[in-house]
Amino acid sequence: MKNMIDLFNKYKNAGNIDETLLVGRNMVNKYPDDFESFHVYMDFLLMLAEKLPVISERNSFLQQANIVLAFFEENANLDSELIIVLGRYKNRIADIADSINTEEDEKIEIQLKEIQRSNNQQIKELYALNQELIAVNTQDAFDNTLNDIGLADSRIEHDYLTDEQQKHYDQLNKSCAADISKKMQELEHKKNISYNKRAVEAYSKAFKKFKQDENNYKNQSQLFKLVASTLFAYDAGKLFNETLIFYNHVYTYIFSKLDDDGKLALTRFSIECERKLDY
User: Of 10, 85, 221, 233, which has the maximum CB count within 10 A?
Assistant: First the structure.
């Protein structure tokens, strides 16, 4: 038995924790009623439970100490003095458990405060990005800002929002959704304006070129080249009423100048020509 304790102390003094634990387990299992074996091993386990930096490891060694204590209680030759000593070990285990729980609570509190601080930062970032979104005037800027909003939102720990943070987030989310919808309509209108401007320019070009050389466009091949890239290049569904009025004026003029074959060809071209659908 003394040799086992000497070996135990040798490894412990050398700082070899794994070997010390191995000898300690072996020792208390071989001599389950020996107080000295129990005492040195128990003190070592409790020292680890008190001193190690990782809480999960401290909990593990504290659980092992509980097991060793229960095992010794079942096998020892109890007397009143030994019962007092065992009671002290129980109290020490309880104190260490309280200390670990307090540290865990403190760590959780620190982590929670950090999460809430980060959530505050991201909510502020979302507010700034929403203001940025209101000010954008191009589709690329809009898309980039939407992407940034998504990234900022993904960094929020939604499960840990305080009631106040949740209130601000919900209000911001509602206003952001409305601003996104409004901005999409604005950008769509801008694109429509650009599309209609190009359409009007194309119709004007067709009108001028046709008037300059009406005889040339009695040739259906030449007529197709003209109207395919101008008069019939734009989707009527995307045109403003004013643009359609000008289109009708140009179409009617050209139609009126063509013979019957030309009128048929122009009608066919209006159906067959591919429209520019992009803005």
Answer: 233
CB 265 within 8 A of CB 253: no
pLDDT digits (tens, 9 = 90+) for 71-106: 999 999 989 999 999 999 999 999 999 999 999 999
Instruction: Retrieve residue 224's tokens.
Output: 């197709």
Assess contact for 173 and 133: CB atoms under 8 A: no
CA separation, residue 236 to residues 55, 251, 265 (Å) = 71, 13, 20
For residue 225 the two structure tokens come to 């080249």
Which candidate, 45, 82, 47, places its Cα nearest to that of 66?
A: 45
Q: How many CA atoms within 13 Å lie on the side-chain side of 23? A: 20
Query: How far, in Å, CA of 202 to CA of 211, rounded?
Result: 14
pTM, two decimals, is 0.60
Q: At which residue do the structure tokens 């970032």 appear?
A: 125
Q: Residue 36 corresponds to which tokens in the numbers above?
A: 């000295």
